[in-house]
Structures are given as structure tokens and as C-alpha cells.
Amino acid sequence: MRTPLRGRFTATAAAVLSLALALTLGAQAGAASPDGANGARASAEEIPGTYEVRGISSATQRSVLAAHGVSIDAVDDHSVTVTADKATAKRLRSMGYLLEEIRQAVPDALPQDASGGDFSVTSTPSQYTSYAQMTATVNSLVSRYPNLMHRQVIGRSHQGRDIIAVRMSNNARVDQNRPEVLFSHNMHAREHLTTEMALYLMNEFATGYGQDSRITTMMNTREIWIIPSLNPDGKVWDQDSGSFRNWRKNRQPNSGSTAIGTDINRNFAYRWGCCGGSSTNPASDTYRGPSAESAPETRVLTNFVRSRVIGGRQQITAHIDFHTYSELILWPFGYTYNDTAPGLNQDQLNVFATVGRQMAASNGYRPQQSSDLYITDGSISDWMWGDQGIWSYTFEMYPRTASQGGFYPPGSVINRETARNREAVLILLENADCMYRSIGKPQLCTT
Fold first, then answer.
1. What is d(CA 180, CA 224) in angstroms, rounded to the nearest whole number?
2. What is the pLDDT of residues 77-122, one digit of tens each?
């Protein structure tokens, strides 16, 4: 197991986040969802279970398992950790799969964290920034750094919440002709550490401008886009009741079913539903929706990315979609086991792998092509690259395993685990003007 790298969090960032975390519950209630996320507790049937499935050791076996409608959360040499509803778990057991439910650990019985810390791996929703607090924090930062940050609403969720994007540069209010890099977060509701990652990046680049030479150079030569929460309805539902609900999807009802939600990361149009990498069952955590881009949150993201095509050229050159957990850096394609495929030649694969490995060397994550884990279809990174030609990576953040907290590691790791990705983000930004330079072929970059 890799030892997590340590990092720092700026005093200004900590102060802004502390201010946001001090918001009253009344402010959070202002973002209450129509399905009663605040105060109302989900029934037992609505909270999916977490299971270890033993005897699974290959990408093919993992793909077959995922095709039964579970989401694979973490991979070990001979087992996987999955999320599944009780009906799916029962069906898998009847098929001969060895499932053991992973229940929340008792804090006093837990070993020390792998980094040597002495904290419990359990957490509570209040340890993470809520959607209302996130909004307040973003507004505070934009107000404090008006020249470096520009906030815009790029669309709304199914339940009508704002999905915001923040543009950062040395003159953020002006759309400049520069390479653009997009960082998206919180596509899956329960992955709250990714929203903390977004807030960390905004703080780090605002406070580092004029102080840190690399940050200053990037702010002077790039346009950085940050989407802190792509799934605000799911985030509120998972967090704001006071108890985590292990919720992954959005909160969009499904016609003809009592099951709620579409997996946004199986809903993109590129190779949607092509290859057994998503589910047709609305109750599944990997339900791909009735059609590509049927989820409003998916359309918000794709419409925004398409809007960055100016003069026939996509301005966004590189992208990271932050997820949890497993400590991985993944690149396309996810829909096929083949290393290269139509739309991904050997030079392009070499670029993905070279920059991916450079970033992994900085944060200790494991770099690999997405399908080396298991087949997925309709994913954001496949769409970003296959449809838009954007060099797109998926980061699976801390922890490595479910035993370290899974989707809900303790709030005490937030500063360390967000700062852990600082160097990786800078590596991508520095390569974003000509990714082919990483393999010694800058002549392949278009001008």
C-alpha cells in the first residue's frame, strides 16, 4: 500500500473554508430538495449496500460482474468492493458469487490510518462541505479575487439547483485565446472529497498567483475551468439529512419504475450502451438512462464543453474528472480492452500513458488505461476524447480501500489528500498547450 504524500493548505484557503463551514443549518435548508433530503431519512431499501466479492481477479471477470448492475468501487488482486441493492446482491449470490457485506466499522476498534495518523476512518456529513456551503465559499472567493475568478451558472440540475463553473486566469472576466483546462468534480453524489478538491484548487491558484512562479505562469497562459459539483441534487440527498446514504446517481425519476436516478458517468453519448459497461436496470447504480444525455446534468456538461468550440476549434485541451475512491489515474478508452482503437492511435495512447505516469509519480496513484479495470461505456473521459478530442483523465482519489473509509474517509484527511494532487494538476496544466511534447513529438501539435 502506498503511503500518501503530505501537503499543505494555505491559511487563506483554510479561513475561507472555515467561514463556509460555519454556515447555519438554516442556510443548508435553503437548498432543500423536493424529495426531502433535509431531515428525511432514506428507507433501508434506498440505501445500497457495500460488499466484498471474492474470487474476482481479471478485468474480464470484473466486467462480467459489473454487467450485472453493480458499481465496482475498488479492486484488489483477488476480490472487488462493489455497491449493490439488496435484490442484486441476492441474485448474485444465487449465481454463485461470494459476497460479504462490509458494514461500517466501529471507531474504537479501527487500526491507525496507513499514513500513521490516529484518526478513525468513519466520518459524518458535517465534516464535508455541503452544497450550500460550497456555493457560499465560491461566492466568497470570487468576491475576494474578482480579477482572477469569474463564476457563471452553466445549467441546472433536475431539481433546479445551479451547476456552476468558475473560470480562473490573470484576467478571468475576459474570454482569452489560450489553452483551456477543465476540472470537474462530484459527478457521483457520495464522492464529497472531490468537491473539497475543487475548493482547494480555487484557493491554491488564487492565493498562489504572484507568489508561486508555476501557478503564476499557468494563470498567465491558461484558462482554468472548475466545476465543483456536477450532481448537486445527489450531493444534497446523500449529505444533508445528517446521515450518509451511499448514493451515487442523480435524483431524476425513471418512467415506469419506482427506482430513482441515472448514473451520469454512463450517460454520455460516445459509445453509450455499446459494450456491456452499463446497466439497463433503473435500480442499478450504473443505470445508463433511457437514452444518451437523458440526464440534465450530463447535458449541462456536454453543452458547456461544446460551447468552448470557438472558430471551429475546441478550446479545452485537457481535463481531469475527479472521483473517489481507489487512488488511480485512468485514461481512455473504457469501452474496449484494446489499447488502441479507432480515434486513439499509438502516439495518442503514448501521450496519455506518459503524462498519466508523470502525474501518478507525483501523487502515488496507480496509472492505467480505464478498461484495464473493467469495461465501461458512456463515460465522460471516453466522450471527452472520442467526441471532442480533449485529453481526459479520471482521478480516483483517496482512500485506496474500503477499510480506510471508502467513499466517506474522515474529514481530517481533506487537507492532505487535496494537496496531494497539487503537483499532478500542475503537470497537466504545463503540458496542456502541446500534449505531444511529452513524447518528444511537438510537431504533432496543431497550431
1. 6
2. 889 999 998 889 999 999 999 999 987 543 333 334 433 333 345 6
Domain layout of the chain by residue ranges: 14-24+124-444
User: Which grid coordinates belong to 373?
Assistant: 479495470
| Side-chain-side CA neighbours of residue 32 (13 Å) | 13
Distance CA 153, CA 161 (A): 10
What distance in Å separates the CA atoms of residue 297 and residue 187, rounded to the nearest whole number? 9
Q: In the beta sheet, which residues pair with residue 329?
A: 367, 395
**Element (DSSP H or E) covering residue 204:** helix 193-208
b/e per residue 289-304 (b: at least 16 CB within 10 A): beebbebbbbebbbeb
pLDDT at residue 16, rounded to an integer:
43
Residue 3 phi/psi, 5° resolution?
Answer: -85, 120
**CATH code for the structural domain at 14-24+124-444:** 3.40.630.10
Alpha helices by DSSP H, 209-329: 213-221, 232-239, 296-307
Model pTM above 0.85: yes
User: Could you identify the residue written with the cell 468537491?
Assistant: 195
Q: Which residues are catalytic?
A: 396
